[in-house]
Structure formats: structure tokens, C-alpha cells
Amino acid sequence: MEKEINYTAATVKVYHGYGHTHNLVVYGHVLAGKSVGPSQYTNNPILNIIHLTKLFLVKTIPHVQVSLQWEKQKFYSTTEFDGFFKFEWKSDTEVSAGWHKITVNLLNEQNLIVSSGEGKIFVPHSTQYGFISDIDDTVLVSHSANTGKKLRVMFTKNPRSRKTFADVVKFYQLLSLAHTKPDLLNPFFYVSSSEWNLYDDLNEFFKHNGLPKGVFLLNQIKKWYQLLKTGKTKHQGKLMRVTRILEAFPKQRFILLGDNSQSDPEIYVSIANKYPERIVAIYIRNISLEKENFTSKMLNSIQKKEIYTCQFQHTDEAILHAKAIGLIV
User: Fold this and answer.
1) Distances from the Cα of 252 to the Cαs of 25, 30, 53, 122, 125, in angstroms?
2) In this structure, are residues 267 and 238 in contact, taking their beta carbons and an 8 Å threshold?
3) What is the mean pLDDT of residues 226-239?
4) Does the domain at residues 129-324 carry the CATH identifier 3.40.50?
């Protein structure tokens, strides 16, 4: 017997979407109960542990109907087994560049709106370049290769006390201005193996540190008993997410940024060989010294030699490389 759904206590969580006039997409979850409030951003490790644990104590609502109103167009979708929903559509009207507010509604059996969530759609300007970046150990110090350190940092720190790598904010701000103007910033897409549970915390981390605003594409939501396996996933999903971005913006060329703690070199080389005319450069942070030679071999295997590659330990090396190839000034 199916458990009765308490629609009035449900939360519609909408994540930043992206696209252009002919291809718009937005994702989200329908969760049971109220969403977890923002962290107190305290240095108290106990409170930080409690906050993180709450993010994984989520209960999702599968197989319920949601709707999206886009100007005069209306679309319907049904949540998957884990409460996840997706809308993908073409706009009847031209969509201007920038951020556009959207609302997703949860419908009951009588097709009445019982809960709503707000989100935004990001339509980039027609700049020359776009940037696709990993997060953990590329931007955010995460110690992915050391489970003990990784969990200690995750559990005891908050989005404002987590550390970026030295000069990474400077580098990304320079990239956002590459061959464009301050009022026409390049688009950023942050594709990570981290779960949707961490979406709000990652947003706060990026905002607090002054990193370029962008769209997050994360991994399947996890439950509390999977908390110790956070960030561990099959990377085929990450490959598919990067591919979707390239296909969504066929007029832009991309720079890929990642690290060698997991599978970024293999994923990015695969993308470069499949879309050689679309990739300008690949930057890999050398987190795992034992993988340094393997990473070099992977980058050297790219069939299209016009694609620039850079494996670096310190961000200033990547900045010098980007200046040398004329990507930034």
C-alpha cells in the first residue's frame, strides 16, 4: 500500500537552469517536508556536522506531477524515483541574455497547485568562449584522494570557511573576461560529482569567495546512509553532462578545467577527441602526484594538437599559460 503524500508539507527545489531560445532546461527535486535552512556559518564543528547531516536526511517524493509556466507556454513533468524532475523546452519568443526567474509548481491528484519553488534560467551572452569547470580539488580544497581528510573538512567546515586554492579566484575572474567586456561576462558551468544535497552550500561558497556566477550540474541526490560515499560516483554521468553543455551551445568554444584526483583527464580528453573544433584548452590541477605521468600521457594523446593543455600544481602556472596562449591578458 502506497504511503499517502502530504502535499502541503512538500518543498519544490529548483536549481539554476540554462539554455537559449531554442533549448532551455531546468532541473529540481520535490522533497518531503521543509528544506534545510542556511547554515549559521559558525566555526563550531558540532553545528557544522549537524548542518551537513541534515542535508543528507532528505526524503524525496517520487512520481508526482509538476508544472512550469514560461510566459504563455505551460509544461508538465513527473518526478523520478528519487524526486528528481527535468523540464526541457523551446521558447516561443526570443529569450534575452541574462538570468530569468521561473516558478515550478507541485500539483496534487486534482491538478491543483499545492506548493511552488522559484529558480532561474541562465541565458549566456554570445561570447566567444564558455568555461566548464570541476569543483572539488579544482576550485575547492577537498582532499578527494584522502578519505579521512576529505570527511574531516566536509564535516567540520562550512561554505564560508572552506578554502579555495591560491589565486583560483583571480584566475576565474580573468577567464570570465577573456576576449569579452565586463558587461558581457563569459558563461561558467560547474560540473561536479558532488550531490544535489550540497547545492545551496556550493552556491554560498562561490558567492562568498567572489567566483563567477554560473550553473551547477551535480550528481544524483544521496540519503544519509550514503553520506560517507559523497562525491564517489561513476563518471559516465559527468561525461554526459559536459556533452549536453557543448550541444546546447554549438556556437561557443570551451575551455575545460579540472584536476587529476579522479577522472577529469580521461573525461576531458574523450570530449576533446569527440569535439576537437569546440575545445580551446584543457587545464588540469595536479593534485595526485602519482598520477602526474598518467595525466601527461592522457593530455598528449589528444588527436587534435591545436588544443592547448596545461597540467599545473599552482594556479599561477595556469595563469601564465593562459596569458602565453592569448586567452587572458
Assistant:
1) 18, 33, 40, 15, 10
2) yes
3) 67
4) yes
Please, is 277 exposed, middle or buried when counting C-beta atoms within 10 Å of its C-beta (0-12, 13-18, 19+)? exposed
Q: How many CB atoms lie within 10 A of CB 132?
A: 23
Domain ranges of the chain: 7-123, 129-324
Residue 86 near residue 19, CB atoms below 8 Å = no
Q: For residue 247, which amino acid is it?
A: E
Exposed, middle or buried by CB within 10 Å (0-12, 13-18, 19+), for 101? exposed
16, 29, 68, 245, 268 from 241: Cα distances, Å = 14, 18, 22, 7, 12
Q: In this predicted model, what pLDDT tens digit does every residue of 57-76 receive, in sequence order?
A: 889 999 999 999 998 999 99
User: Is the pLDDT higher at 194 or at 132?
Assistant: 132
What stretch of H or E contains 32? strand 23-32
pLDDT in the model for residue 234: 56
Run of H or E including 8: none
Q: Which fold has domain 7-123?
A: Immunoglobulin-like (2.60.40)
Percentage, residues of the chain above pLDDT 90: 73
Please say whether the beta carbons of 312 and 283 come within 8 A. Answer: yes
Which amino acid is located at 78 in the chain? T
User: Which of 71, 193, 82 minimizes the C-alpha distance to 133?
Assistant: 193
Per-residue pLDDT of 15-27, as tens digits, reads 999 998 788 999 9
> What's the rounded Cα separation, in Å, for the pair 301 and 293?
12
Which residue do the cell numbers 580521461 mark?
266
How many CA within 13 A on the CB side of residue 277?
Answer: 3
